[in-house]
Design a protein that fits this description.
2 copies of one chain form a homodimer. The first copy, chain A, has 510 residues and is mainly α. Helix content of chain A is 63%, strand content 3%. The first copy, chain A, has a 3-stranded mixed sheet with strand order 1-3-2, with helices on both faces. Chain A starts with a helix and ends with a helix.
Chain lengths: 510, 510
């Protein structure tokens, strides 16, 4: 570029930044409304909150689909060809293009219809689930499926109708790739789960004793702090369904749930959300206020949460460090429990009906079956009205159990009842797979990491993740992040090796 | 109107409603951001929150000043001449006109500048106050004053530069009127305060004993519930400075603060904010989502809070009902205290330094002095850098005491550090004056009210207030509400008579 060209480019680029920052601020404001809805909203406030969120999202949508923004991106795309592909400018323009295309393909009346449908369906689900009334959800879910298909049709460049959703949360991923990865994983998992669940269960009686909830929360927060979650730039509150949300790099919040008669539920939920929060708190500050200041994909995000929850939080090293403080915190309840017993209890493998309660090993079977069910619906080989039965059949074949009702069957997860059918679940398992690729690479670079964990030190691990994953935010696609950080794209082998090693030892498998 | 005219009018009026509802929703979203900032925002989150609030307020401002909205109001103003002045349509158009004129006078870059300045100044104040660092606030406050003057200059129709703010919070009020009312009140108050503070003080030692904070909060909330505050459409949280905020008629929240060594601070703050909340929860539902669904003025709002806090909450009848439950709640701490001693303790008159801690009687002296100081700054007879000294001088002359530092001097109230200088305080005392006008009228209509209070029943009082004040929201100006409800405009006599009667009896004045 000449100096004049550069000056003209800088002006246009500054306008892009400004427009994207405004859209990002509106996204963050929407997140505040959502956080408050889940944490503190009084019962009566829900209707007005729905209206307010809709107003905000309509305004945001208008800004995100503004034709002037489109023209600006068109011009800048040509400009950045003269810059390095790795430059900040080129990265931002690439993401702006992706977001703009995603937003403009959907006609605004379709967006409004979908938004109304989503909120009505969610409302209906909150009633249907406790009432165990899947039949009431069938017509709504049929509409959801129809809307999902229409959505997909606006993106004819994808060869599979579910690809638009898979690619939406995990750029570059396709149904075909996920299918292959899941097949490989399942092949390894099924015999392992069978072998483990044939062995005697470890002792877990003490997990259900009475543990003061406020004390539980404080303990979880102390570990989150050790992990490196900066509470001066975050906080934890209570919700029915734990989540992480981000209002800015300096305001990344998590939520958890806590039960007096469960020592581990709140703790691991806190560690899981802390894993998400560490990602968001450590994105490059240069991206702040822009659409780059988020995770690379659902899968990479989940790799961070699962790494800190499971690979670290359920490791022997972790419990070598934290069992003492936990026993000091609950001396009466844990008087008859050893460190080894605690380690085994937090890694108990048990076939179960509820995904969010599932252990590290069986969890993926819950995910894979959901992925395949939604795929079957999208492909038209499964009717919505048969979904509840198909669900039960899959649980029988994959986990050898059947839910007594639909409440703990097909109605258990909000995902299908809060928006689209397609692409809602696979990211969880992609995250599990990736978490081991990242862990192995981190330990290869810093062999002292396992030893540090035994001392409650997490700086080297967090540092490696920041350096190789977190800081890039959304400026690089997931596949690029994985390749650069680990030397390969998504690969199942390290994850299976980890599971085989850990559970083989725990359950004395030959 | 002909049928055709009526149809055309209905279409235009529906558009007005829709536009005003959107603006109102954006206002409510801003209120959520503000509530979160004061209750749960982590330290690091302040900068981004300031930016988000500014973005939102810029968007809201653009909608509120849209030329099409102006033209719509122009047309509707002509149309509603054919309707009754008291009709819903005429009322809404009148308020829309007022808001539109207020909003269009301020250029949008000025609004953005003010909003940024406000949030930065507030942040600086939260640090400067504990550090007792008034000097750090001087340049910011000078900028606030300058912005306030610029604001005022956009409204040249007002004869006094502070009138735009006085009229802004209390439509129809002027500096001149407030000055006259305050002069009359002060003339009555000064000798009464002198006489009372020459008498021996009642016993108050037990107020400062140790009272569990969670229990204090629960007790306050139980009284708020008795008053009629609907917690399914509201909630209470903790903030440094208590306030009431409204996200919709079904989500009206209050905040309080609580200290272990003060039995009365949290309680009366809760009762005060409950008074505000009762107003907002009982506005006519037909106004919901429109700019009519708020209080008529700062003064009328404050009349409700002061009525429930003081006229009810510090009455002999109230304590006849609630001393028992309070003593049951804190049996050890209140074992040696009688009902009469409690009643006297919550009505102790004591010259003091902190407005929000001041008793019912001296409170107005704190307000009048602030009103006069901000008036002097606006009029240019007091420089910001001399404000701290002027503050101390006025406290010496009016209350015979001097704060040991600025933390408990000029830095004590957020008002000047959270926005504009001018018109921030007078509403409190207008509210006190009005509260007695409303109380007298309510008791005249329902002579059983004092007896009901002794039984913890508040339905007749709340019902009269709803019928005569609350339900009208902002559809009627304050003066009209007062006149219709009490038969006269703002008048000091009932308030002075109440104070003379109550404190004459309490302190045995002849």
């Amino acid at each position: 570029m000449t100096t004049d060209q550069r000056t003209a480019f800088d002006t246009r680029f500054a306008e892009l930044r400004e427009r994207l920052a405004e859209i990002q601020d509106l996204t963050s404001i929407g997140a505040v409304l959502g956080w408050d809805r889940s944490t503190y909203l009084p019962e009566g406030g829900a209707a007005a909150r729905g209206r307010q969120s809709a107003v905000l999202s309509r305004i945001r949508h208008a800004k995100a689909t503004d034709a002037d923004l489109g023209r600006l991106i068109d011009g800048l795309e040509r400009d950045v060809e003269a810059l390095e592909a790795d430059s900040f400018e080129a990265r931002l323009v690439r993401v702006a293009r992706r977001d703009f295309d995603r937003a403009t393909r959907l006609p605004s009346d379709f967006v409004a219809r979908m938004s109304r449908h989503t909120s009505e369906t969610y409302g209906a689900w909150t009633k249907a689930r406790p009432a165990n009334d899947f039949a009431a959800m069938v017509p709504r879910l049929e509409q959801t499926l129809e809307l999902s298909r229409q959505y997909s049709a606006f993106f004819p460049e994808f060869s599979h109708p579910m690809d638009v959703f898979v690619d939406g949360s995990d750029e570059g991923m396709t149904v075909q790739k996920v299918r292959a990865v899941f097949a490989e994983l399942r092949e390894g998992l099924v015999p392992l789960v069978r072998a483990v669940t044939e062995r005697p269960e470890p002792r877990t009686d003490f997990v259900g004793r009475a543990y003061d909830v406020a004390t539980q929360l404080r303990f979880g927060e102390s570990v989150a702090r050790d992990y490196g979650y900066d509470f001066s730039r975050g906080r934890q509150d209570l919700t029915a369904h734990p989540f992480m949300t981000r209002f800015s790099i300096d305001d990344v919040r998590i939520t958890t749930r806590v039960q007096e008669n469960d020592l581990t539920d709140a703790l691991f939920s806190t560690l899981h959300e802390t894993g998400h929060a560490l990602y968001e708190q450590n994105v490059d500050r240069a991206f702040e206020g822009l659409p780059l200041a988020r995770g690379a994909s659902a899968g990479v995000h989940e790799s961070s949460s699962r790494l800190w929850e499971n690979v670290v939080g359920r490791s022997r090293g972790f419990w070598a460090r934290y069992f003492g403080p936990l026993r000091d915190t609950f001396p009466q309840q844990l008087a008859d429990v050893s460190e080894e017993e605690m380690y085994r209890a937090v890694n108990v493998v048990r076939k179960s009906l509820i995904r969010t309660d599932a252990d590290e090993l069986t969890y993926n079977l819950h995910v894979i079956l959901r992925f395949e069910l939604e795929l079957a619906m999208i492909e038209g080989t499964l009717e919505v009205r048969d979904l509840a039965d198909a669900w039960h059949a899959r649980y029988e074949s994959d986990l050898g159990m059947r839910a007594p009702d639909d409440r703990d069957g097909v109605l258990q997860d909000v995902h299908w009842f809060g928006g689209l059918i397609g692409g809602a679940f696979h990211g969880y398992t992609l995250g599990n797979i990736l978490s081991l690729q990242f862990w192995d690479a981190a330990v290869k670079a810093h062999p002292g990491i396992p030893g540090e964990i035994e001392r409650g030190e997490f700086g080297a691990l967090r540092g490696w993740l920041t350096q190789n994953v977190y800081r890039f935010g959304r400026s690089r696609a997931a596949a690029e992040v994985a390749r650069n950080a680990t030397g390969s794209e998504l690969t199942v082998a390290p994850y299976l090796a980890y599971l085989r090693g850990k559970y083989g030892e725990l359950y004395n498998l030959s």
